[in-house]
Structure formats: C-alpha cells, structure tokens
Amino acid sequence: DRSGSMQGQKWNKAAEALQSCMQVLGQTDRAMITFFESRFQDFAEGPLPVRELLEDRQFNSIEEIGIGGGTEMRPALKHVLDVASKC
Fold first, then answer.
1. How confident is the model at residue 76 (pLDDT cuts 50, 70, 90)?
2. Res 31 pLDDT > 90
3. Using CA atoms, how far apart are residues 87 and 32, in angstroms rounded to an integer?
C-alpha cells in the first residue's frame, strides 16, 4: 500500500518489512511485488527469484519510490490473483 495515508514512518516501515520478508525466503523461492494506491504497478513483469530481488539496487532502496494516491486495493488484488493463476 503506497497510498497517501502511508506517508512518513508508515511507508518506511512497510518498505523495511517487505525487504525483511524477502530475506527469510529460500534461495529457490520467487516473489512478485505489486504496489497499489489509486492504481497498481508491478515491481517487475513477473515473479523474480528472491536472490535477484535482494541484489537489485532499486529493491534495496524501495522506500524512495514514495507514496501517493488513494487506497484502491481491489484492482491490484484481482491483478495479483490473475497473475498467480498463470504461474
């Protein structure tokens, strides 16, 4: 959730939690990250190997993408479920 209500410490903690979650996954695991606010955006075109995410400069500075917009979770959730059904 990168909506406006996540401004400041909430967003920083959410980004930190995401990075921490990736660090505890196995090296053969893959992860898909979709950000949402008034619209949604995938971090990458599809699920990525965890080791690739952990080595990615943009992922390691994810808090810099910031926040904006409203909280429109439904379209993002539908998108994620559609992608997951194809994996």
1. very high
2. yes
3. 11
| Average pLDDT of span 22-37 | 94
44 within 8 A of 52, measured Cβ to Cβ: no
Q: Does the model's pTM come out above 0.70?
A: yes
| Residue showing tokens 């429109």 | 72
- pLDDT exceeds 80 at position 13: yes
Place of tokens 């500075």: 61
| Amino acid of residue 32 | M
User: Around Cβ 4, how many Cβ atoms within 10 Å?
Assistant: 13
Q: Let me know: does 19 contact 83? Beta carbons within 8 Å.
A: no
Q: CA nearest 37: which of 78, 70, 82? A: 70
Distance separating alpha carbons of residues 59 and 87, to the nearest angstrom: 22
Alpha carbon 19 to chain centroid, angstroms? 9
